[in-house]
From TrEMBL:
Disulfide bonds: C156-C174
Lineage: Eukaryota, Metazoa, Spiralia, Lophotrochozoa, Mollusca
Topology in membrane: Multi-pass membrane protein
Cellular compartments annotated: Cell junction, Adherens junction; Cell membrane; Cytoplasm; Membrane
InterPro entries associated with the record: Tetraspanin/Peripherin, Tetraspanin_animals, Tetraspanin_EC2_sf
Species this chain originates from: Patella caerulea (Rayed Mediterranean limpet)
GO biological-process terms attached to the record: protein localization to plasma membrane; protein maturation; protein-containing complex assembly
Main location: other
Spans traversing the lipid bilayer: 20-42, 62-85, 91-116, 241-263
Protein name: Tetraspanin
Gene Ontology cellular component annotations, sorted alphabetically: adherens junction; cytoplasm; plasma membrane; pore complex
Similarity section: Belongs to the tetraspanin (TM4SF) family.
Length: 284
């Protein structure tokens, strides 16, 4: 139908090219994420090899998560982009049906998390505590992720115990049997002032002794609140911003679904009109 003139087609060029460019951006973004995910996975496994023992080992491997999300976005972007360009109703249908399923899943998870917020909070806390804290020094992805959160959210640890969570890490735990130089310390990202020796250079021992029971200056040395509680407090204090982010994330999905469905309907109308005008050819 794409070779018909604008006077002989029901397909709006505005809708068609909006769907095309909308999905082209996501198609390219998905390709970029796949490339970065593969690169990160290969580079990470040059220095660190982790045996997969549970589904959490995959879920919390950031390079794998990035790769999987990239593949999903790439496939969706491809189907929407090519579906619009070639006016292919099968690809367009696949695109908007998957987008609807994703949107419904997001809404469902959001409602469940709100209704059972205490249970959801505890589940997330347990997953992070069991899969990030023990692997901090051994998994470069986990280390970078935790450091980024602790530095930017101004928190330490995961649970309501806050900084005490680091006793569960074999390098930081504060016991007489731990001979590590990091014993009784916390990661440098917990420190209120990281460059205690040289300006601009984090001191990995700036949290030394913070896990000792008698540490007198702990609250001025490190952040003591757990990151889950800190993030919830930040969200409550910035509800308009959180709402804006949710809306900004939701609207493009709805626009993509509506435009793809509209374009599919226009193509089907064009096909039906062509079949009415050429019944013999349509019957072949």
């Amino acid at each position: 139908m794409s070779c018909l003139s604008s006077e002989n087609t029901y397909v709006s060029p505005v809708v068609k090219w909006l769907v095309f460019f909308f999905n082209f951006i996501f198609w390219m973004a998905g390709a970029g994420m796949v490339g970065i995910g593969i690169w990160a996975f290969v580079e990470k496994n040059k220095f660190y090899h982790q045996e997969i023992q549970s589904i959490y080992d995959v879920m919390f491997d950031l390079s794998v998560v990035f790769l999987v999300l990239g593949v999903i976005i790439f496939i969706l972007g491809f189907s929407g982009c090519i579906g619009a360009l070639r006016e292919n109703t099968y690809l367009l249908k696949f695109f908007y049906i998957v987008m609807i399923l994703i949107f419904v899943a997001e809404i469902t998870l959001g409602v469940i998390a709100f209704v059972f917020r205490d249970k959801a909070k505890q589940t997330i806390t347990d997953m992070f505590q069991e899969n990030f804290i023990p692997r901090y020094e051994d998994d470069p992805d986990a280390k970078s992720f935790i450091d980024w959160i602790q530095e930017n959210i101004h928190c330490c640890g995961v649970t309501s115990n806050g900084y005490k969570d680091w006793n569960q890490n074999m390098y930081f735990n504060c016991t007489t049997s731990n001979l590590s130089k990091l014993s009784c310390a916390t990661p440098y990202s917990c420190c209120r002032k990281q460059d205690t020796i040289r300006a601009g250079v984090p001191n990995i021992l700036c949290g030394a002794g913070a896990l000792k029971a008698e540490a007198p200056n702990r609250s001025s040395q490190i952040y003591t609140i757990g990151c889950i509680d800190a993030m919830l407090n930040m969200a409550e204090q910035n509800l308009p911003i959180v709402g804006g982010v949710v809306i900004a994330f939701t609207i493009p999905q709805l626009i993509g679904i509506c435009l793809a469905r509209m374009l599919e309907g226009q193509i089907l109308d064009q096909v039906a009109r062509w079949e009415r005008r050429h019944p013999l050819l349509a019957a072949q």
